Amino acid sequence: MVSFITANGIREGHVQADTAYLFVDSAKAELHQMRILFFNEDGSQLATVTGTSGEWDQTTDRMTAWGDVLLIVHSDQRRIETQELNYDPEAERIWSDSATVQTMADGSITRGSAFESDMEFRNVRIASIRGAISR
User: Fold this and answer.
1) Radius of gyration (Cα) for the chain, nearest Å?
2) Alpha carbon 9 to chain centroid distance?
3) Residue 30 pLDDT class (50, 70, 90 cuts)
4) Alpha helices of the chain — where are they, by DSSP H?
5) What are the boundaries of each domain within the chain?
6) Per the CATH hierarchy, to which homologous superfamily does domain 2-97 belong?
7) Is the pLDDT of residue 14 over 60?
8) Which residues have a Cβ under 8 Å from the Cβ of 8 and sit 6 or more positions away?
9) Statement: residue 133 has pLDDT above 70
10) Of 68, 85, 97, 129, which is most buried, counting CB atoms within 10 Å of its CB?
């Protein structure tokens, strides 16, 4: 399955899944082996999310990814790994309430109990930091 997330005619995302289940009585799609590519307003790639499974509400474009979720921020090659990731385009927010590992391009690692960020990834907050490894 391949689809696009748009707002006011501007492409905000590209959704792919090996398998998608769509239901007649719901706007939600169940995704398996999913990949979502988010774009900046200028069309450049912002971030990529991959996960084993997920759910996408085609009406609101809210998304949740589960299972070995990997978020890569293209501007600084930051990697955020977690087991569940949520995206809300209306709030311009991406977050996880699950254990999180952030790896920066220089190899430094930060572990925490959760994270939250705006969609520009300028304000990334990791909760209950359990240790940072600098390289």
Assistant:
1) 15
2) 21
3) very high
4) none
5) 2-97
6) Lipopolysaccharide (LPS) transport protein A like domain (2.60.450.10)
7) yes
8) none
9) no
10) 85
pTM above 0.85, yes or no: yes
What are the tokens at 68? 């070995």
- pLDDT value, residue 61: 86
Is the C-alpha dihedral spanning 16, 13, 46, 132 positive or negative?
negative
| Beta-bridge mates of residue 93 | 88, 118
**Are the C-beta atoms of residues 49 and 35 closer than 8 Å to each other?**
yes
**pLDDT tens-place string over residues 53-85:** 999 998 888 999 999 999 999 999 999 999 999
Provide φ and ψ at 130, rounded to 5°.
-110, 20
Q: Which pair of structure tokens corresponds to residue 18?
A: 């090996």
**In angstroms, rounded to a whole number, what is the distance separating the alpha carbons of residues 14 and 20?**
14
Interval 110-132 mean pLDDT: 91
Indicate the Cα dihedral angle 120, 47, 116, 103, nearest 10°.
Answer: -110
Here the tokens at position 62 are 């809210």
Using left for φ > 0, alpha for ψ between -120 and 50, and beta otherwise, residue 83 falls in: alpha
